[in-house]
Design a protein that fits this description.
mainly alpha; Multidrug efflux transporter AcrB transmembrane fold; two-stranded antiparallel ribbon; 4% strand
Length: 244
Amino acid sequence: MIRNEDGQLVGFVFVDLKGDLGVADYVTQAKQVVSEQVALPAGYRLGWAGQFQYFERAKAKLQWVIPATLLAVFFLLYLHRGRFSDTMFVLSAMPFALMGSIWLLFLLNYKLSVAVWVGMIAMAGLAAELGLLMLHYLDDALQKPDALDSTNRLEEFHEKVAQSAAQRIRPMLMTSLTLLISLVPILISDGTGADVMKRIAAPMVGGTASALIAVLLVFPAIFALWKGPGLMLTNGGNHLKIKQ
């Protein structure tokens, strides 16, 4: 069979990869070997197609999709809270979530790919949601500042922060465990299309675990350190002033 492409005769060499070597890594090494050992005659050209071509297209799209997604999340959070400090507090959950994602990818020996980036984008959105829910309940510690004892205000404030955080343990556990239980079967599957789905599920599983721990344990402590020094007693009496 005579094949042509763009009016020129063309021949295809098909390569099936095995092991842990990714398509992009293979093409990078193959290009180097070909450039060193193969001398193309005049009128011949060499191109890399197939999955590598699709990977390059997706990589180019992700270069603007990921920043656009983070910017959209930031903008929506800012519209909801109305303060830059609150927005950054909620977004601080993302690094904690990405830490768990990266660790699980490392343990599973998964390389960065389009599927992995898709899972990380989804995980970043879930982490922001968990952080926003926790901040909503932590705000209850500042709703009635006049009720705090004037002699032990900071201690009572810390106690109210702990109580507000404790109210989120059950709903957050229900949300996180539901996600984990639904993703674990995908993570251990081996059927058709499992290679892609496992790389989407892996960062979400690892990120959910680390984000849950961070939001339940770290966020209340950060909130107390952030808002605690703003509690000041005015000279005019037992009125509590809160600096945002």
